[in-house]
């Protein structure tokens, strides 16, 4: 048995051994139990599961202090952020209760029997049903809102799908604590045993996605780990959907009018956004296009000054700190080697962090199309070829990688010309670093945008009332972004009905969102009943049922 | 250049060379043109595309006689069926026009800025946008409704996505003719060049799904070809969704009460359903559970008698005929070898078809988990290991496989005990064959059902008012079926709002449908606009817009 350590990233010390790594046999038992729970969990009905979600949220609140304490010890995210994250988590659980009570998510549709231009049509009634047990992989950077009690869990339970959690190695104690609270609350609320399960360890994660009882996977993490898990899924007799929220650059464009109007404000706010929580957000803006000229210079100076005021930041785990160091070294080398006309690479007065610079940039880091910087979202360095899934999964977890115990990251800013963007500047580097790309004309800007990978978000800063260039930028970004932001920052993803947290690869590998109410769609599948009598139909499809929105003979009707 | 032959399956003769196989360079040109058309096609708007779909339907009608003539010559499906299929095709195109005018498919959602328990929320507005150019692979068995002018095409064009068609080698002349009609009508209707493209040849199909401009694939065909195309997609730098409608057994259960009440009717109707169009439907019922005892005996006799009246049937192409012969031989051997207590395997008075029985069953057919019978949906024998994608794609198309020129299939019925179902009886065998599984008690029936693969459909025949056993059967089938049918037959898939034509693997590899209005969801992806002023928003998300259903601050509102 290998113990799963809980490590304090501030000291690099192991505080406790949380659990043994889950064995293959144990994974099988847990998944089998989840499968047995699927029917009874669905049978709770929409109202029953809405009450369950309320009960889960209510059960977390009394443990707030303990949860925040353990999560802070494991992640160094700090009590303010973690209290906010727990509030978000409870709100999210309750919002999915509202989704259930509303019922529109079922897409209930009734076509009565009748004649059509193609002949007689039978009575057809369609709605969405639970997909079955879901594996949820926690994220390093959101120990609550994207982990055990997070959005994947809330949306899967709402859908009626039991959840088997893969605890992230970066916060196993937080994961275990939250799991115990949720499982106890579920039992008390009348949910079946097996509604929640948890596994620890990389091999257990691979066993989990390979298990025949698992019908879908929710994942937030690196492209490399995602590819490793996808390789496991490809070996299943039957494929299952894998919803991966992966890697995102999140470009920002400042128009000349915006720079003229509020250079200092944008500069300070941008610095705050990309260094928030040491830049460990999937929505961190990693690249900002600033016009050349005095207004843009003022903006860049404001960013530099804000960055210079910041000290080294404790990162989530040693693997992420190491990857960040490698990524920023690669960026530095790329910017220095490049044809950039700018020499104002801020070496600023930022104090050295104690993480060794280790000589020259590691030119030997393989460029395999996934990451030029080698920076990984979840602390597993992406040095392995992406196709070698099993090897990636056999690699020890972050803390035991060749890396300093604990680790900090120094906020960094690099500057290049938009006309000579090195590849390293167009990929996510997880941590408090951003690249300023100075642009001198729209053709150059548009060409640079055309070369960017898809992202979760794209942001435009414009002057009040300015529409021509912003509209053109929105048009160009829309095919490759999931959310278009105006005069704001991508960090901070509201949990809402209209939210979309997704985007084309490598942002995600799905057309669905992992934040907001429509995240439930991932864990549902349609079924049509043909010529079924009322007794054989789900309540929501019976003739007289009218308390949810339904489309009847082609016309959408609400309950109002 | 290799010519693409149009072959008459009745004679096995090549009637004409339709085109040259499309070269890699030509595929690139066609896909590039499709990408260029994406913006202008979207800019036509919902009303513009609805008019376009009406125009496409209207353009096909005047060519009805010619289309049916060419399609019949290539498929032998007969003018009655093909006229019906063209009617369905035109209806389908127009129905997607209704979907556009309704606008609910956009899932338009508005959350106004405001305070929430997690703090202030920005203004968020979400709707679905086109995914980009789509590759549509035609099916052998529906030269119109699931091919060039079919449901994938209609739903993709409705979504605003240009379509590049892969003509099926079984009906290239029909494909080319329909493409020319659609492309000319689109041009006349004001759609951009590149709205439609077409490619011929297996290699062109692989080039197509590998092309960076292609953003999604609609496919109807065999698991083997699907796996080969998925292997190509896995080699892309970025994965794209592949919507495969693949392989389906479509089990039917007859309750004792139903057998008692209408044994002869069900027997005759079942025989008609599984032999319709030589059993070449993805919804062909391949397995029927009939109770033991006199009522069940009467039912089976009725099936046998109906089958005995049928002569050999011309199949879609020589590859399918060969695979069918191999599949039925494998079934026959499995039934003969098995522990089946039944000796009433109908060797009936069915006349021999002239297709050689070729000695003993081919015991050497590899059992690789995809097909025990080696029968493929699209005429490419599934003899290749599924992981060997490139090899499968290098294999010559159906007509040049070692097989008789042209080919017929003799309707067959096999009988086994539900307690000893051989694997060959639980997999799709494309063609006019079915297996009768006699069941003696519910435990035996439920155990047999638990061993079946997922299917597009599951059917229950019950007595009027009987609910206990039908409800239990529905409960057991629901996790593995896309459509639950009562007192009917799975063949005949109505194009409707409430239709679902899908199901878990191997029925499909997606949670979406390929028939019915919600098929459009496959070719759309969500985008959220954050803090966008009215000028920067699509019309449907502007404040004053009210002519489509929208969810506003969590409440669904219709235009009524």
UniProtKB/TrEMBL annotation, chains A, B:
<dbReference type="InterPro" id="IPR016163">
    <property type="entry name" value="Ald_DH_C"/>
</dbReference>
<feature type="domain" description="Aldehyde dehydrogenase">
    <location>
        <begin position="4"/>
        <end position="310"/>
    </location>
</feature>
<feature type="region of interest" description="Disordered">
    <location>
        <begin position="372"/>
        <end position="409"/>
    </location>
</feature>
<dbReference type="InterPro" id="IPR016161">
    <property type="entry name" value="Ald_DH/histidinol_DH"/>
</dbReference>
<dbReference type="Pfam" id="PF00171">
    <property type="entry name" value="Aldedh"/>
</dbReference>
<dbReference type="InterPro" id="IPR016162">
    <property type="entry name" value="Ald_DH_N"/>
</dbReference>
<dbReference type="InterPro" id="IPR044151">
    <property type="entry name" value="ALDH_KGSADH"/>
</dbReference>
<dbReference type="InterPro" id="IPR015590">
    <property type="entry name" value="Aldehyde_DH_dom"/>
</dbReference>
<dbReference type="InterPro" id="IPR050740">
    <property type="entry name" value="Aldehyde_DH_Superfamily"/>
</dbReference>
<protein>
    <submittedName>
        <fullName>Aldehyde dehydrogenase</fullName>
    </submittedName>
</protein>
<keyword id="KW-0560">Oxidoreductase</keyword>
